[in-house]
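Course assignment 3, question 2. Fill in each field.
Student: A.L.
Task: Predict the tertiary structure for the chain below.
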Amino acid sequence: MKEEERLRPIDRMTRWISTGWIYALVDPGTGDIRYIGKTTDPYCRCHQHENIDLCHKGNVALMKWKRELHDRGVVPEFKIIAEITAASDWLLNGLLIASEQAIIEKLSSPKSGKRINNLLNVVVF
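Answer field:
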């Protein structure tokens, strides 16, 4: 019997599920959320954010903030705030973009109760 035939239907389904995460970069001194991002590899993305020299698609404000942290000898805290799964990479990408945008809008909205005015996001579609 082939391995595929031995798996329960749910096992067969989950073998192809794609997972992504929405994360926040937090100022370690103030605890303020400064950036919301998306990734399919949180370990790699965290390392990229710790590396001051990596480009951030022209987000000068983010690069400036990271440089200020670097000059103080600290790095941003990387916190996972949502996990998203989808049946394919294509669907996952769409869900990650929509989720990232929705969280940014919610955190930036005056209706949220505590508006975050210092988000450094530049959302590129």
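Instructor remarks: Residues 52 and 70 are 7 Å apart (CA to CA). The helical segments are 3-6, 9-14, 42-50, 60-71, 89-108.
Grade: pending
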